[in-house]
Write a structure and sequence with these properties.
Elements (H helix, E strand, L loop, with lengths): L1 H21 L1 H8 L4 H12 L7 H9 L29 H27 L7 H9 L2 H8 L3 H14 L4 H7 L11 H14 L2 H21 L3 H12 L9 H9 L9 H16 L6 H14 L13 H13 L6 H22 L12 H13 L2 H4 L6 H6 L3 H8 L1
Length: 408
């Protein structure tokens, strides 16, 4: 069996290498239109101590390498996130894209493996788990666009996995999702309350250490980086852009002139999150309760794209494990509902295959789909309660390690 796996892996690598070589020219031509060129430009400018947020400098650099659009792709993440893209400036846009996609794929593989170990007592992941993980629409969307979402996902997964045993490292891992703090609004609020009430100072110190180091790197390369970032935010005029998130669509239809409306769902969600934490404070477990915060954070985010929704993978897979554990008790109605969820995810994949731009707003309903799936799958906990030795672990989200401790 091991030899078969090795041979299969080598065949897969050979096929991928052949596809890469045979389509190299097409791939090179398309790289300049992907979001990864914004990361490459930022790394290139920062490496030479220039302003990575300058639209004119970015456009000049991108056009010199074949970029054809009028508006440059400028990195919009804050200065403490620039360490992620710094090395890309050492490469040309094509190889920077290759390196970035390799990082995203590695992050995905690690995230999938760690998620399985957190939420399942079995040694090997089920086919349903693997298929869902790799075909979860935001994942291929993120890979195709060369966006940041899967890297943010890895940071969240590492925090969930390390929080109970390696709190300092868990805090440091939070630097990764802090690149887009608005996507994790509920997590930050609840985390602050939890740290203070439980006196989890090692997590706070790990986070503060990582952020401080990231800021130091940015300031050493560009002392004016924060002023430049503020200027970029001011001139970008994001309030006049259409944001294809659920909040952006609601604003477009009913409150076009009022940008603040996009923040109202998030404000309401903060109140919900504090109530959610208070109700579960005595049994709070980040591995179990954390995904719920992620789902509602993305659903109510004032600024989000389908590629950002890759961070919801642990919530989606947690739901898959719940449903799979109850597969022998599924009624026809439940099977049809699950089929509808799978079909809607397939529809999103078809839209991606058709190369419909993210900015059109046609994907705005995706976050609502993921939230619906999570809460529907959560209802299956009552079915798996008492169904075996690992029922408690499946229902509460504890990892295999907890199960092993119980057996000892």
């Amino acid at each position: 069996m091991k030899a078969v796996k090795i041979i299969s892996g080598l065949i897969l690598i050979a096929v991928m290498a052949w596809l890469f070589v045979s389509h190299q020219q097409t791939i090179r031509a398309g790289v300049n239109e992907r979001d990864s060129i914004a990361y490459w430009a930022a790394g290139n400018l920062l490496r030479s101590h220039q302003n990575p947020y300058s639209a004119s400098a970015v456009l000049s650099l991108q056009r010199a390498h074949g970029y054809s659009l009028e508006k440059p792709l400028v990195l919009r993440t804050p200065p403490w996130s620039l360490w992620k893209v710094l090395f890309l400036g050492l490469l040309d846009p094509f190889w920077a894209w290759i390196a970035w996609v390799a990082i995203l794929l590695a992050s995905l593989l690690i995230a999938m493996r760690v998620t399985w170990r957190m939420y399942s007592s079995e040694e090997r992941p089920s086919a349903a788990f693997l298929v869902t993980g790799y075909l979860f629409a935001p994942i291929p969307a993120c890979l195709v666009a060369g966006q940041l979402g899967i890297a943010l996902l890895l940071g969240v997964i590492l925090f969930l996995a390390l929080e109970d045993r390696r709190p300092f490292l868990a805090g440091m891992a939070l630097l990764i999702p802090f690149a887009k703090p608005h996507l994790f609004s509920l997590l930050w609020f609840v985390l602050a309350v939890w740290i203070i009430s439980r006196k989890k100072w090692r997590i706070l110190s790990g986070f503060a250490t990582a952020v401080s180091l990231a800021i130091m790197i940015a300031l050493l390369l560009d002392p004016a980086i924060f002023a430049q970032y503020r200027e970029m935010v001011r001139t970008a005029a994001i309030q006049y852009e259409f944001i294809p998130a659920l909040s952006g669509v609601v604003r477009l239809i009913f409150f076009r002139r009022f940008f603040c409306v996009q923040f109202l769902p998030m404000a309401a969600a903060v109140g919900w999150s504090l109530h959610f934490y208070w109700r579960n404070r005595f049994t709070w477990n980040w591995r179990y309760h954390g995904p719920a915060l992620l789902v509602i954070s993305v659903l109510t985010a004032p600024y989000a794209w389908i590629t950002d929704e890759a961070i919801l993978l642990p919530a989606i897979l947690q739901g898959v494990i719940w449903v799979y554990a109850a597969k022998d008790k599924l009624k026809l109605r439940s099977q049809l509902i699950i089929f509808v969820f799978a079909s809607l995810n397939g529809l999103l994949l078809l839209l991606l295959r058709a190369k419909i731009p993210f900015a059109t707003g046609i994907y705005f309903w995706s976050s609502l789909l993921w939230a619906s799936w999570y809460w529907y799958a959560k209802s299956f906990q009552s079915l798996i309660a008492g169904s075996g030795i690992y029922a408690e672990d499946l229902a509460t989200g504890f990892s295999r390690d907890r199960s092993n401790d119980r057996e000892k």
